[in-house]
From TrEMBL:
It comes from Tilletia walkeri. The lineage of its organism: Eukaryota, Fungi, Dikarya, Basidiomycota, Ustilaginomycotina. Keywords: Hydrolase, Lipid degradation, Lipid metabolism, Signal. It comes from the Eukaryota. Belongs to the AB hydrolase superfamily. Lipase family. The keyword Protein biosynthesis does not apply. Its EC number is 3.1.1.3. This is triacylglycerol lipase. InterPro entries: AB_hydrolase_fold, Lipase_secreted.
Length: 463
């Protein structure tokens, strides 16, 4: 066993055992009750009128709240209500072509919420699916344990336990544009605009401190949001953003995972593009064999856990009539994929302090893409970028491995501690070797046990 592995084994096991033990517990499930007995909460989005844009919505400003409803979330099987409040908002945004549209965000308020100022974390789930039923707003209400990563639910619990208000946007929009970065950016930024208007939770939005967190597909959304923020939402003041397992170039990732146990993610990524680009949908219909369109139609019904765990190895290009070169040269494909490539010439440079972390052994993302993107934005004047390159670990494990230190970094931004000036790349045997990260693991474990036993979700016992 390598020296690095020996050093990281104990703390990594501590995190994974904590996550796994709580995930396996029958107490740690999500149930939902409707705040209003006449509400349609819990119906699939395509059947729930709450998701339908109301008459006149197009004239509303981007980020305007169009509808609002309370919901009750239960994170344990024993507690009737663990959160001080949970509500959903339908808000005005734009589609991938810049035309008026609307989508939903879930706003969670913990007990003992930290105030003066309010800490607001926009947490972008790694939805990683082209199926609309996998949107966070529905998966959190549908008792759909197979649609949402349990690790991410535990991180949501950790954030609430720290006293943060959470915004959980359906950033892929009503057509579920998975891998469409431009669409994800506006979904996140307009979700922030809307969330800051929920006065019952954020009474003084001008003084609130805002941060972003995302891993994998959630990092794609967060990364695009911080890129587009200077031009799309310059009024938003974002204290920092965590980008873990970051997705920089969709084409590179699709090629990287093709013909692997993650081949289904290739189909999912292309199908997410097909959902929102009509020209691409028409082209794929002619370029794919019948079994190719059937493959895309099938993945359009699946959520992340089912897609990720399938494990079938196949070459996506075996399902396509045209050559790989011809496929990637088609105008509709070029247009669609360009919406998933960060840091292109002429695009804005993120002005938000960034913590970027990934494993150098990540089997899904392309670590060199992350290196090149960091170098690119730093050369172009990004004010603060801390890039942590973890020595080992696959994609899913790194989400857990990097989380404690990442949340400590978020804490520092919320405390207005000085940020790094300029750019630095750090090599880490394990982020868990940091004593503060180990303390956060202890905090996480204590809070999860308390909440699983029925305690309220929020800061407890001085944590």
């Amino acid at each position: 066993m390598r020296f690095a592995s020996l050093l990281t084994l104990a703390p990594l096991c501590a995190v994974l055992v904590t996550f796994s033990a709580v995930q396996a517990s029958p107490l740690y499930t999500i149930r939902a009750a409707v705040g209003d007995t006449n509400s349609t909460a819990g119906l699939p989005p395509d059947q729930d009128p709450f998701y339908t844009c109301p008459t006149g919505y197009a004239s509303a400003k981007a980020g305007a709240i169009l509808r609002q409803r309370p919901v009750k979330l239960n994170f344990t099987a024993t507690a009737p209500e663990n959160l001080k409040s949970a509500q959903q908002i339908l808000y005005r945004t734009v589609d991938v072509f810049g035309k008026p549209d609307c989508t939903v965000s879930t706003v969670l308020q913990p007990f003992n919420q930290l105030k003066y100022p309010t800490r607001v974390l926009s947490y972008q789930f790694a939805e990683d699916s082209p199926a609309l039923k996998c949107a966070p707003s529905y998966s959190l209400l549908a008792r759909a344990s197979a649609t949402t990563s349990s690790v991410e639910l535990i991180l949501v619990n950790l954030a609430l336990s720290k006293g943060y208000v959470l915004l959980l946007p359906d950033y892929q929009g009503p057509k579920s544009g998975f891998t469409v970065g431009t669409l994800s950016a506006t979904g996140v930024l307009d979700g922030l605009r809307a969330g800051l208007q929920v006065k019952s939770v954020i009474p003084d939005p001008d003084k609130a401190i805002v941060a972003l967190y995302g891993y994998s597909g959630g990092a794609l959304a967060s990364g695009w949001a911080v890129q587009q923020q200077p031009v799309y939402a310059p009024e938003l003041k974002i204290a920092g953003a965590v980008l873990g397992g970051h997705i920089i170039n969709i084409k590179h990732i699709l090629l990287n995972i093709n013909n692997s146990t993650h081949s289904n993610l290739v189909a999912a990524g292309i199908d997410g593009q097909r959902n929102v680009f009509p020209d691409l949908k028409a082209y794929i219909k002619t370029a794919a064999f019948p079994n190719g369109t059937a493959l895309l139609d099938d993945v359009n019904t699946k959520c992340l856990n089912e897609i990720f765990s399938d494990g079938t190895v196949f070459n996506f290009f075996d399902y396509i009539r045209v050559s790989e070169q011809e496929l990637f040269s088609a105008p509709s494909v070029v247009t669609a994929l360009s919406s998933g490539i960060l840091g292109q010439a002429g695009t804005p440079v993120p002005q938000v302090p960034l913590l970027v972390f990934n494993s150098v052994e990540d089997e899904i993302i392309v670590p060199k893409d992350v290196d090149d993107w960091v170098a690119n934005i730093c050369k172009r004047g990004a004010p603060s970028v801390q890039h942590v390159k973890i020595a080992s670990g696959q994609h899913a494990a790194t989400a857990a491995l990097g989380a404690p230190a990442a949340f400590n970094w978020i804490d520092a931004r919320f405390q207005r501690l000085p940020v790094l000036k300029g750019c630095v790349t750090q090599k880490s045997l394990s982020p868990l070797l940091d004593p503060l990260a180990i303390l956060t693991v202890g905090q996480l474990f204590l809070n999860l046990l308390t909440h699983a036993a029925g305690g309220p979700i929020g800061p407890i016992l001085g944590f």
